[in-house]
Amino acid sequence: MKRVRAIETIVEELTDELVVCNLGFPSRELYALHDRETHFYMLGSMGLASSIGLGISLSQPRKVVVLDGDGSLLMNLGSLATIANHAPENYLLIVLDNRCYGSTGCQPTATAKAADLAAIASGAGVRGVKTASTVGGIRFHVHGSGVLIITVDPGNADVPIVDCEPVEIRSRFVREIKRRLRRR
Known about the structure:
Blueprint: H1 3-13, E1 18-21, H2 25-34, E2 39-41, H3 49-59, E3 64-69, H4 70-74, H5 78-86, E4 91-97, E5 100-101, E6 107-108, H6 117-123, E7 129-132, H7 135-141, E8 146-151, H8 166-182
Parallel strand pairs: 1-2, 1-3, 3-4, 4-8, 7-8
Antiparallel strand pairs: 5-6
């Protein structure tokens, strides 16, 4: 399955969740599929989507879904221990594992040979580690919490860049969080 199809399936299942998306093509694909004010597109800071999403989930009650890549998560494996330590019920880290650095030329990551991200997450103490490689598997697991590893094919969709300025992305996302908190 192509990564863009996995992202499309995830978006179809989400309603009002906050979404933090890894930089590069995953953000571009999400933006092209369905831009929402509940989406925070990473335009830098490779490896930090999981940590940023965790911080947001700990600061408010709304569910936070993080779309990350295998290469990005491999740059910040320590985030898995922190996720395990806090174990928020309103947090789901989805790792789109295409076994390469898709946004920089598809150089192989460690998952292409030996690294098993599900085993690493479990070893870090994360409860609720799941895997999927089909649309049905994604639909079944996307409503939970913990970590979901989705195996996808290498390759990027032909989508334009995110044409929002970083300050605009941040401002509308923060407004959305505050709007919901005021209604409580």
